Amino acid sequence: MSKDDMHSQGEESVTVALERLALTLGESGAVPLPELVRALERAAERLRTTAIPDEVPSDLVSQAEASRAVGVSRQAVNQWVRNNVVRSYAGNGSNRHGPQVSLAEVAIAANRRSREVPFSSGRRRELLDFLGVVETFTETTAIAANIRDALAENGDEERSPEHIRVLGEFVRASMGVGDQQREFTADGLQLLSDLRPSIVVDDDTVFGSLAQSLRLLIRSGNGIAGFDSPCTALLGLLGAATVGAQYDGAEAEVATNIAVAAEDVWGDDWVARLYDAVFHVAESRPLPLVRYTASLTYLDYNRFLRKAQASGVSINYSRNPGLIVPERLHGAPVFDDIFNRTRIGPHPWNFSSTAAKVGWPSTLDSGVNPFRVFNYEYGFFDPSIHGIRRYCYSTEDVRAELLKNADALPPERRQAYFDVAGDHLVRTLLQPSTELTVVDVLEDFDWWKDHLIRSSPREVLLGLRDERARSVAHALLVSTDFLPQVVEEWRTDDLLSDRMRIYVKNLEFDVIDARYRDDLKRGRVRLIKAGGQQIDEAEAHDLANQEIQFLRAE
User: Highest taxon of the source (predicted)?
Assistant: First the structure.
């Protein structure tokens, strides 16, 4: 049809023609229906906003400030701007440093520059050597062999339909209003429980007993325990070799053997190298959904941030964050040493034999799990992972826990407790990559925020709150690449499929990010420190003191 013909037939004919084209593409299968819907939604949004100029990023700084905040050279940032890798924006009238750059864009460029060749043959060989040494120990022969076999297999993709169905049941149950929102229907909970771990661990063995006491094993409804993926199994070995080795008994001897094997292969840098292997194994063997225990959730933050920061930004929501409550920053045993000034050892996870009596992870609340220290030391505070970490917590929940913990102490030690909390908050505020925000009104910390432990463009970690669901898993790691398939799973019911599409968007990072920024604009979220902002120690102390005093005011 010519341009003149189209104009002569009127605008309505063009609309009908476009509608027919979209229907034809969908009905013929030329374009997967979920992808077509998403593409049309994005196109409509762009057309609606064509008259509105592109929004200027909110994280603009000078090139010098960006280089300091992200941790790269000034020359590198300048070169990226000159080569159009990073866009530049006209500075405001008070800026004496010329064009500005977006911190997120600089972080993306930095991560791309430092990204290694995916799991080189040499690194893979080192991992297999490590598993080979672990396999020589009688107590760990089975788990090492199972991981090695899983790395050689290509069958994980066959489990995708089960995983997608479980996630679909989670989303469907959440469609209720108010108190009717649930995590799972009865059928969904059964599906979650019926998932069989891909790497089975016999918990009657010494290693099985160790892993169970460290709260590392997923246990299905039929009693089978283990790990859902090679990645989480490697995290299990890492957890055993670190925190597990701090306790007494036969289990600790097994943990020490794993640590010795890692050191034999990688030397003093074995923790970082094992984390590197975990990251690359997860990248090469992605799954739609993986169940996590509390311990695995904290151990995995390093891998999550490495994956998330390739896009420059991640968002965390937490009702009770360790960034304020010191026990939750370090875990109970390490905090016991810090508070009693008996801290030992060169590593963040080291704690004394006296502190070990506080208890094994299986006997402690997940909030004071000893693996908490990994969540922050090898994730949140890792300077080698570039990007902005947005962290949002609830004032009411943190205030209640902080005051409860302080009141449990002798009166003469309460101020010391608040001083420890303030010192850790100062450390957080001194991190240029940290954006710290707070929800002061509990009602504004809605159902979805309470479940979105972590979010990035590539994956989201959903915390489970219902005790029945938590008996199976503490959290679910969801790959966002599979979200369209969740909608497709329910395509036989048009009305339900449409509703699913809407609710699945709650798990997409662009929607989470938009809501986060909207909450800031509307004042539902209070900003303590912006991401990329570099402040000096005096200012950090002032901000921390103000926040601690605010939390202490009942």
Answer: Bacteria
Q: Which amino acid is at 62?
A: S
3-class secondary-structure state, position 526: strand
Can you tell me the distance from the alpha carbon of 475 to that of 478, in angstroms, rounded to the nearest whole number? 10
CB 171 within 8 A of CB 497: no
Q: On the CB side of 400, how many CA atoms lie within 13 Å of its CA?
A: 8
Cα of 10 vs its chain's centroid, Å:
51
Ranges of CATH 1.10.10 domains, the chain: 60-114
Distance CA 195, CA 472 (A): 10
For strands 101-102 and 60-61, give the pairing.
Answer: antiparallel
501 burial level (CB within 10 Å; 0-12, 13-18, 19+): buried
Gyration radius from the chain CA atoms: 25
CB 181 within 8 A of CB 447: yes
Q: CA 113 to CA 143: how far, in whole Å?
A: 36
Q: Which helix (DSSP H) or strand (DSSP E) does residue 389 occupy?
A: strand 388-394
Q: Which range among 83-97, 207-221, 341-355 shows the weakest confidence by mean pLDDT? A: 83-97
The pLDDT assigned to 161 comes to 86
Distance, in Å, from the CA atom of 97 to the CA atom of 15, rounded to the nearest integer, reads 49
As a whole number of angstroms, the distance between CA 532 and CA 159 comes to 40
Output 12 or 466, whichever has higher pLDDT. Answer: 466
Alpha carbon distance 432, 452 (integer Å): 23
Which ranges of 176-269 would DSSP assign to H, the alpha helix?
186-194, 206-213, 230-242, 250-266
Neighbours of 38 (CB within 10 A): 17
Res 544 pLDDT > 50: yes
pLDDT at 46: 54
**The CATH fold of domain 60-114:** Arc Repressor Mutant, subunit A (1.10.10)
| Closest C-alpha to 504, from 176, 187, 179, 175 | 175
Could you tell me the CA-to-CA distances from 124 to 120, 228, 230, 276, 420 in Å, in that order?
6, 21, 13, 10, 42
* 11 pLDDT tier (thresholds 50, 70, 90): very low
Q: What angle do CA 249, 198, 251 make, to 5 degrees?
A: 0
Distance between CA atoms of 178 and 176, rounded to whole angstroms?
Answer: 7
Question: What residues are paired with 46 via a beta bridge?
Answer: none
Half-sphere exposure of 40 (CA within 13 A, CB side): 14
15-16-21 Cα angle (round to 5): 100
Distance CA 341, CA 325 (A): 18
Average pLDDT over residues 264-271: 94
Q: Which two tokens stand for residue 235?
A: 């995290």
